[in-house]
Amino acid sequence: MHGGPEVTIVIPTLNERANIGLLVARLRQSLARIDWEVVFVDDDSKDGTILAVHDIAAGDHRVRGIRRIARRGLAGACLEGILSSSAPIVAVMDGDLQHDETCLPAMLAMLQGGEADLVIASRYGSDGSAQGGFTRLRSSVSRLATYLARLLLRTPIHDPMSGFFMLRREIVDAVAPRLSRQGFKILLDIVASSSTAIRIKEIPYVFAPRLHGQSKLDSLVALEYAGLLVAKMSGDLISTRFLAFGLVGSAGVVVHLAVLHALLPHGLSFVVAQTAAMFTAMAFNYTLNNAFTYRDQRRRGWRFLTGLLMFAALCSFGVVAGVGVSTLLYSGHSRWWVAGLAGAIVGSAWNYITNSAITWRRQ
């Protein structure tokens, strides 16, 4: 009777079809003496990645695929794959062939031998290197992020930004409710979220160049990472999404006041100018939140337009309240920017409720 795999390798994917066959072949070779399985967690790739996984899985029971619909994000994909496993040990690695799969047997041996609870493949320890897989700019950014993580969260590891690691599944089971579904760095989240000490070991590896496809990192990852650091420093009192929403809202306040200031000198009444400013800021906030704060639930095409209409309808109550409050203050001889700011705050409160509960609710 088959007792299940010793280890599950979780690989999040987005448009990695060209790498699937090569990666499975490498796993077969490196893990020849180990009872293993691999779970590809695909964020509904448009290039047929999950079809490539299913083709291989039809002839190899060790290969599984999970297709995520209307859900995005590397951290969430990793968590979903880990929690789907029944193996006592799980590993996470990328699907772009930049992680050295030959490290997996040594990592597993360290866990099974009781040397550690978590083994990290490090690019920055002795004999480790990221030169082949990173541009100079990305290498500098990665090292800065690593320094901040070690400084602010006191993580006792050389490479807390690594996406290549192996650990006991029970650790993830314990911290899963506290983990962020957004962002790229689930390892840092796991270590920072654990209420008990984790025995950590690192092994060096050389970060290889990407062979096929394109990197999934973009300019928003840095902001998500900053949000994760703040969330963990605050003991998860401030969530990553709430912080992002607040940053967008702050930018929206600037837009609101700028529009109000631009319209008032042109003979418009304060009521008209304030209403126009609030609707402009509302559209700005919706667009930016859709692109950033709720990027894992991003509305596209017609859904973007229907979402904007839904958002506008729901926010109309906030607009009425905001205009009423600000007009009352302005008629009482308050400064224009004080009245405008008060209205923006009232509108933003309603805005947050509709964003979280209705406009971008999970399908």
Automatic annotation (TrEMBL):
<dbReference type="Pfam" id="PF00535">
    <property type="entry name" value="Glycos_transf_2"/>
</dbReference>
<dbReference type="InterPro" id="IPR029044">
    <property type="entry name" value="Nucleotide-diphossugar_trans"/>
</dbReference>
<dbReference type="GO" id="GO:0000271">
    <property type="term" value="P:polysaccharide biosynthetic process"/>
</dbReference>
<protein>
    <submittedName>
        <fullName>Dolichol monophosphate mannose synthase</fullName>
    </submittedName>
</protein>
<keyword id="KW-0328">Glycosyltransferase</keyword>
<dbReference type="GO" id="GO:0004582">
    <property type="term" value="F:dolichyl-phosphate beta-D-mannosyltransferase activity"/>
</dbReference>
<dbReference type="GO" id="GO:0016020">
    <property type="term" value="C:membrane"/>
</dbReference>
<dbReference type="InterPro" id="IPR039528">
    <property type="entry name" value="DPM1-like"/>
</dbReference>
<comment type="similarity">
    <text>Belongs to the glycosyltransferase 2 family.</text>
</comment>
<dbReference type="InterPro" id="IPR007267">
    <property type="entry name" value="GtrA_DPMS_TM"/>
</dbReference>
<dbReference type="GO" id="GO:0009247">
    <property type="term" value="P:glycolipid biosynthetic process"/>
</dbReference>
<keyword id="KW-0812">Transmembrane</keyword>
<keyword id="KW-1133">Transmembrane helix</keyword>
<dbReference type="Pfam" id="PF04138">
    <property type="entry name" value="GtrA_DPMS_TM"/>
</dbReference>
<keyword id="KW-0808">Transferase</keyword>
<dbReference type="InterPro" id="IPR001173">
    <property type="entry name" value="Glyco_trans_2-like"/>
</dbReference>
<keyword id="KW-0472">Membrane</keyword>
